[in-house]
What does this fold into?
Amino acid sequence: MSEKIDRTNFLDLKSCDPEKVISRTGCKFDKISEQYFVDIWGVTYCVDLNKYEVRPEGTGLKPHHNCLYLFILFYLMKSKNMLPSGVWVSEKDIPGGAAFFRGPHTIPADLITARFGEDIDLFKTRCEKLGGIPIELADAAFLFNITPTIPIAVLYWQGDEDFPSEARLLFDKNIEQHLPLDIIYALAVEVCHAFG
It folds into this structure.
C-alpha cells in the first residue's frame, strides 16, 4: 500500500537528524538499513527510507488508504516531545479546524455508529480489544494512546427510538503542536476505520 505515498515524504524524513527524531518520539533507528521502528497504537511499524515504504512488523491495524502510514511519517518528522495537556477538544476547536473539518474532511464517525448502532456493549467490547481505557464521558468513552504523546478519545451516545446513536472523536489540545490539520484528519479516519 505504501508505494502510493509521495516519495517526498520519505525524503523529508531522511533529511531529519535521526538522533533528534529518536529524542522526540522514542523510536529506534538502524543506521545501516536506514529504517525507523516506531510503536503506534500497540503495533511496531518499520519506516524503510531506502524502499520508500512503511510496513507493520507484525499483525495489527490494517491501514485505510495509507492514512496511518502518512500519520507515522509526519509523526516522526514533526511531532514534539510534549506530554498530553489533559484537555480534550473537538476537531473544530483546533486552530483552523472549524473551516477545515467539513465537507470532504468531515471526520467519518458515522462509520462507528453504523457498526454498533444501539449496541453500546458491543462498542465497549471493541474498545477494550483495541486497548482503550474507559473515561467518564458520554454514555461510554475510551481513551486510546496512539503514541505516548498523542491520545484520542472516542465517545459514544446510545440511541433510542427518538434519537440515533452518535459517536465523536476528541483530541488532546496539544495535537495542534504535533501535526498539521490534514494529518490529524488522516489519523481520525484511521481511528474510525479501526472500529469496522
